[in-house]
Specification:
By secondary structure, the protein is mainly alpha-helical. The chain is built from eight helices and three strands. The protein has a three-stranded antiparallel sheet. The longest helix has 21 residues. About 17% of the residues have low confidence.
Length: 185
């Protein structure tokens, strides 16, 4: 494998990703034509929201420009290809994390689960697809097929096999959830 994707590879991948309607607006505030990304969540955000994300720290959200940065890794590009604004929205909604407060949302248990699952799925995609520019997608161009024998995490978020917490919001920080569970026991 080479050191990483070329500038041309990066440009082609983002051109394709930006064609999805949900990725044409900032995930956090709805501004049109976002040019920044939180690799951690595979979402597109505007420059103003990118500053907010940067202030939260790289342990919660890692930011790159989709236009200016040329040092993307294949892992990071796979996270963007497997993520997207629509999938993040679906995941957070299915786990009752409906807050618009960025600190609360990105410090929540739902955010922790999402970033872990996305990172794992991207690592698997790097192993399976290597430096292939575009990974297989379904007819609508938004979904990525899992490797044979692998469960597709993103299809599981709408199935009954993936836990959703209707009575308990995953929008709380993980420590708060543990405290609440201990108090109810």
């Amino acid at each position: 494998m080479s050191d990483g994707p070329s500038k041309t590879d990066i440009t082609q991948i983002f051109k394709r990703l930006r064609s999805a309607s949900a990725n044409k607006v900032c995930y956090d505030c709805g501004s049109k034509n976002p040019t920044w990304a939180s690799i951690t969540y595979g979402i597109f955000i505007c420059i103003d929201c990118s500053g907010i994300h940067r202030s939260m720290g790289v342990h919660l959200t890692f930011i790159r420009s989709t236009n200016l940065d040329t040092n993307w890794s294949w892992q990071q590009l796979r996270q963007m290809q497997l993520g997207g604004n629509a999938k993040a929205t679906t995941f957070f909604r299915s786990n009752n994390c409906l807050t618009t407060d960025k600190q609360e949302k990105y410090n929540s248990r739902a955010a922790m689960l999402y970033r872990e699952k996305l990172q794992q799925a991207a690592a698997q995609a790097v192993k399976v697809h290597g430096e292939k520019l575009h990974i297989e997608s379904s007819a609508n161009g938004d979904e990525v097929e899992p490797a044979k024998g692998e469960e597709d995490f993103f299809s599981s978020i709408s199935s009954s096999s993936f836990p959703t917490f209707s009575s308990q919001s995953l929008c709380q920080p993980p420590q708060a959830m543990e405290t609440n569970q201990a108090m109810s026991a």
